[in-house]
Amino acid sequence: MADSPEHPVDLPACPSVQGAGAGLLPPELRGWMLLLAATGAVEQRLRSVVKERLDVSHDEFLVLCLLAEQPQGGLRMTRVAELLGRPKTRLTYQIACLQHAGLVTRRSVCEDKRGIEVALTDKARDLLREASGALAETVTGALAHVMGPEQCAAMSGLIPKAATATEPQPEPGREHATVSD
């Protein structure tokens, strides 16, 4: 097949690598835009596979993935909302759906009665293990379809600086004040 996912021939040339410096955006922003486009392609393909294999929505799947990466126990709901950039009210609904399906448990945090921690059930772990091969193939296929060598090269504009950063940098306009003794 001429248009196999490994060789995306039908893709237009990546604007972020045509004439370095010709565009308005610095390499980091061009790389970020490519990352967003790749993420969108992956999400689009994953939606149907997630529904078919796990019978959950894509947003619920993201919650399951976050919880699956925890070495032990679960996460507080406020932390899940923060990591996914979701409103807490929407997350409460998603967690309720996942709990109803038997995929997560909820419990109060001992030291803070208001805090709720969510964790995967064994059923969810088994489902994720069974589906992981198909999910991984879907991600790889989607990325191979939208990212050719030029796009991969442009993405490297994000990676070297992120890998070598030693300390988090303050957001512009939010420098931390120092307190001296």
TrEMBL record:
InterPro entries named in the record: HTH_MarR-typ, MarR/SlyA-like, WH-like_DNA-bd_sf, WH_DNA-bd_sf
Molecular functions (GO terms): DNA-binding transcription factor activity
SMART domains: HTH_MARR (SM00347)
Source domain of life: Bacteria
PROSITE patterns, per the entry: HTH_MARR_2
Gene3D superfamilies according to UniProt: Winged helix-like DNA-binding domain superfamily/Winged helix DNA-binding domain
One GO term of the biological process aspect: response to stress
Domain HTH marR-type: 28-164
Designated name of the protein: MarR family transcriptional regulator
